[in-house]
Specification:
The complex is a heterodimer. Chain A is 36% helix and 27% strand. By secondary structure, chain A is an alpha/beta fold. The longest helix of chain B is centred in the last third of the chain and has 44 residues, at 256-299. The structure holds adenosine-5'-diphosphate and magnesium ion.
Amino acid sequence: MIRLQNIEKVYRTDTIETLALNSVSLDVAKGEFLSIMGPSGCGKSTLLNIMGLLDVPSKGSIKIADRVTENLNDKQLAQFRNKTLGFIFQSYHLINDLQVLDNVELPLLYRDTTAKERKMLATEALEKVGLANRVKHFPTQLSGGQRQRVAIARAIVGKPDIILADEPTGNLDSAMGNEIMDILINLNRNEGTTIVMVTHDENMAHKTHRLVRLFDGSQVQ
Amino acid sequence: MFKHLFKLIWNKKKQNFLLMTEMLVSFMVLFAVFTLMVYYYDNYKKPMGFKYQDVWVINISNAYQTKNTDSLDLYYETLRKIIKALPQVQELSFVSGNTPFSQQINEGGLTYKGKHIEHLNNFTGEDSYKDALQVEVLEGRWFNKQDAVSKYRSVVIDADLKEATFGKGQAVGKLLGNDDDKNKMKVVGVIQTIKRNGDYVKPGPGIYYRADTGSFRWLNKILVRVSPGADAAFEGRLYKTMANYMKNSNIEIEHLTNKLKDTNYFAVIPMIILSIVSCFLIINVALGLFGVLWYNINKRKGEIGLRRAIGATGNSVSSQLVMESMILATLSLIIGSFFAIQFPLLNVFNLQAHIYIIGMLLSIIFVYLLVLVCSLYPGRQAAAIYPAVALHEE
Ligand SMILES: Nc1ncnc2c1ncn2[C@@H]1O[C@H](COP(=O)(O)OP(=O)(O)O)[C@@H](O)[C@H]1O
Ligand SMILES: [Mg+2]
C-alpha cells in the first residue's frame, strides 16, 4: 500500500542542516496496522508527513496506493490526499468555530458532494466513534478524548484507504487513549483501512501488527 | 462552500464585528465624498448658461435718490448713455443685486398646479440683459418693449423652473403665479439656467422680471459687457467717468471671471478637506484590514494546514480567505446601503436621487476593491505556507 525507498530528508535553515531522515525504506501492506516509535526528534512526524504527501523528501521515492506521487501538481496532490488519506493529529486540529458536524464534514467540502450527502456521511462517521449525540457541540465543549474521536470521524468520513495518525493518544490519559485505540483497531479490522500510527506508548504499539523503531532519522528495527 | 464560510463567519461574529464596523464606517464616509463629487460633477458638466468672460459688475451704493420717478429715470438713463458711449463697452443692464457668483440671494416660492417650488431665485433685469450676459434662449424670447403694455406681467423662466413646473411640455404662453387670475404672470421665454453659484453648486430654479420705470430705486448693480481687450486702464477710465457723474456714490468694479474663481474656490475647499480626511480614514481602514487579515492567517495556521491536509489546494485556501473578507464586506455594505438609501428616500439634502445612487455604487465598488486588495496578499501568503509546517506549529 505504501512503499518508501531510501527516503532522506534534510532540513536546511540559515545556520544548520538537520538530517531528519536518513535512508529510510519501508513497506506497508494493504490492511496493515503499523506503529512507529522512537525518541522525540528522531523524525517520526517527518516520516509521516512524507507518507501523507504534506512534505517532500530530499531523496528517495514514494509509492502510495500503487501511484508514484512525485510529479503530481498541487491540485492533484490535494485530491489525492482528500480521497486516499485520512489524518489524525496529537493536537486534534479541529476548527473551534465550527460545530462537530461541520468539522467532520470538512473533507467532503473539497469533493463533489451535496449538503445532504455530507450530512449523512458525517453523521454516520460520528456514530462510528460514538458521538452521534454531540453533533451540535463546539469542540471547546468536549473533552480531549471526545475531540480526538471527532478528529477520527473527520479522518474516516471520506472513506480513505490509509489513515496516518501522529501520536493520536499523546494528549490523552490511558483510559481515553484506550478508547481511541479500540476505535482504530476496529476500523482496521472491520473496514480494512491501512493505518500508520506514531506513538510513544509501548502498550499501544504492541496492539498493532508491526512496530518500526526510528533513532536519529534511521530505522533501527 | 459558501454556506460553510457563512457559518464560519457567523460563529466568529464577535471577532468580525470590529472589522465589519470599520468597513461600514469607511463606506459611509466614502458615500459622503462620492455623493458630493457626483453632485459637483453633475453641475460641472452642465452649461454655464451665459458668457461670463468680459462681463464686469459695477456695484453702486449711496446712489442718487429722489421721490420723483421721472427725474430718477432721467438720471439713470443719462448714466446708461455715458457708460455706453465708452469705446470698449458693448452692452449693459441694470440688475438686481443677486448677480452671478455673488453671495446675495433673493429667494421666494411659487405654486404651480399644487406643486410647490421652493428656493426660487427672483432676478430683475432689463431688455438689454440678454445681450449683456449673452444668455441662451431656449424657448420664446427675452423681454422687449411690448412687455410694458401686456395684459399679464411678463416673466422669463430658466430651464430648471420650466422642468419643475411644465416638465417637457411647452412653457411659453402659460400663466404662473399664486394670486388670483388677474395678477398672474405670463411666461414669454425660457433661458438656459445660469450657474449663479459657480461651476459646482446647483443654482436652483430662477424666474426673471423685467425692470420698469421705478426699478431704478433699488437696482444697485450694473452688468457691463466689455470688449475682449478691455484692460485696467480702461477700467480706470470707466471708474472715473462714473465717479464724475455720481459725485456722492461709491462705485466698485469687479470682474465675473474673478468672482467665479472665488465662488468655485469656496465650493472646492470643503470638498478637498473632506477628501483628505477620507483618505486618512481609508488608509487607516486599509491598514487595519490588512493587519487583521494578516493576524488571522497567523492565528489560523493550524486551520490552514489542516485544510491543506484534507484536500484543499493552496489556491483554494487563499480564495477562501479572500471570500471570507468579501462576505464580510458584503454584509457591511448591505447594512451601509440601508442607511445610505434613506438619504434619497427622505430627500435629506434636496439632491436628486441619481446623485445618491451613483455615490452609493461608487462607494460599494471602492470598498470591495479595498477589501480585495487588502486580502489578496495575505491570502497569497496563506497559500504559500507549507502544510507540514502549519500543522507543526500550535
Ligand atoms: N520544518 C522544519 N525545519 C527544520 N527542522 C525541522 C523541521 N521539522 C522538523 N525538523 C527537525 O527534524 C527533526 C525531526 O523532527 P520530527 O520529525 O518532528 O521528530 P519527531 O516527530 O520524531 O519528534 C528534528 O530535529 C526537528 O528539529
Ligand atoms: Mg512528532
